[in-house]
Amino acid sequence: MSFSLRHVISMKDFTREDIDEIFELAERLERVASGVPCRLLEDKLLALLFYEPSTRTRLSFDAAMKRLGGASIDLGSVEASSVAKGETLADTIRVVGGYADAIVLRHPSEGAARMASEYSRVPVVNAGDGVGHHPTQTLLDLYTIKRENRLDGISVALVGDLRYGRTVHSLAYALALYGARIYLVSPPQLRMPEHIKSDLLESNIVVEETSRLEDVFESVNVLYMTRIQRERFAEPSEYLAVAGSYRLTSEMLSGVRDDLIIMHPLPRVGEIDSSVDETPYARYFKQSFYGVPVRMALLVKLLEGRDLV
Amino acid sequence: MKDGLLIRSIEHGTVIDHITAGQALSVMRIIGINNGTSAVVSVAMNVPGEEMGLKDIVKIEGRELDSREVDKISLISPDATINIIRDYDVVSKYTVELPSEIRGIVRCRNPNCITNTGEPVASAFTVAKDPVTLRCRYCDHIILSDIAEQLI
User: Fold this and answer.
1) Does the beta carbon of A264 lie under 8 angstroms from any beta carbon of chain B?
2) Residue of A7, A44, A67, A106 with catalytic role
3) How far is A96 from chain B (nearest CA, A)?
4) Which residues contact residue B119 at a Cβ distance below 8 angstroms, ignoring those fewer than 6 apart?
């Protein structure tokens, strides 16, 4: 056992060994995520502090904790809490750390989770800090690739808004740890930032860039689709033209590799036609399910130390 | 230029030499020299140096620098040397050293960084050399240029 993280703030804090250890445990916990009773975290309390709206991340942490026999407490809406009275995050964290055994935090400011971890006596899990990090999303994405295909030497196309999407940024870094070949598919105005591309190239992996989705169909094992947001475009017509060219339908999938898997962090708004749901390639609902065992594994590692399981 | 002293020597105080050309005014701001300063201060800018092109020099009478000021100077002028003068003699001379981490001396340029939101936390950066590059410990934002403007 090598897992050494006290908090989960950024994928950059993880070694490949840490990730592998989480995944090994997650796989064993999939049964529990599906409803097999478990009391591993009985008597443990998880605090959910969401300063920004989130449905699935919050629900999936809540589900993970309860499936493990633990309980959760929720800050509720920010408007109704002491935050509305002007309390600093540093104070809230110290107070809540006195109530719960771990804290899950989503906050609109970059670096909020890192700061919170410095004030907290209990483990802090970053569930998104502004446009910064969202490491549990990256872990569940990687886990999906591992479970539904393989991680080593895989070819992955990241499709859509690669400029602003924090999910694809940290996924790209994580894939580099596994020597993936990465295809970046986006409209020119939403390309992956240069500094990330140069970091990826420095890690000696193959990175190719294109704006045409059809260029990559025959080459990749994973199509990772993301949402293109309307507000990134000045003209509505421009948005419609771009969004239309990144819309995946089942007709487009002839000639793809047999082992192709299609992923999406959800919610989708038209990037993947519902006709794709019935193809053997669709994995996005499986992917959202995997969020539960992966978060369970993290909670167990953080709350129960190294030698419990 | 004829040989000779460009600016007069000082009896007690500090000479900051080999300042990156053009940064003398920032150095003065760092050490708190302003229109209320009564000490003798001499400034030379764009002086031809012996080895590497132009440099600035700041001399201040009756004043020694603390480590925080030296750290700040190192960020905008990593080759500066600090000479402590007593009775006209140099009693100590050293080159500033770029710290590997700084706390509370530079403001993060990302307005949405947690260190800019009224929380009680001090800004913190890891520092890389050649060129001086600061990476925010909290939001990962990188500061590569105009560091002087971000000094607290």
Assistant:
1) no
2) A106
3) 17
4) A88, A89, A90, A115
Q: Which two tokens stand for residue B24?
A: 């003398």
Cα A298 from Cα A304, distance rounded (Å): 10
Q: pLDDT (tens digit, 9 = 90+) per residue, A51-99?
A: 988 888 999 999 999 999 999 999 877 766 767 678 999 999 999 999 9
Tokens of A101: 């055994």
Q: Establish whether A57 is a catalytic residue.
A: yes
- Please give the tally of structural domains in chain A: 2
Ordered structural domains, chain B, with CATH: 13-95 (3.30.70.140), 101-150 (2.30.30.20)
- In angstroms, the Cα distances linking A26 to A20, A47, A141, A144 are 10, 21, 13, 11
Predicted ipTM?
0.86
Establish whether A134 is a catalytic residue. Answer: yes
A152/A122 same-domain check: no
* Alpha carbon of A291: minimum distance to chain B alpha carbons (Å): 25
Q: Catalytic annotation on A286?
A: no
Query: What's A192's domain CATH number?
Result: 3.40.50.1370
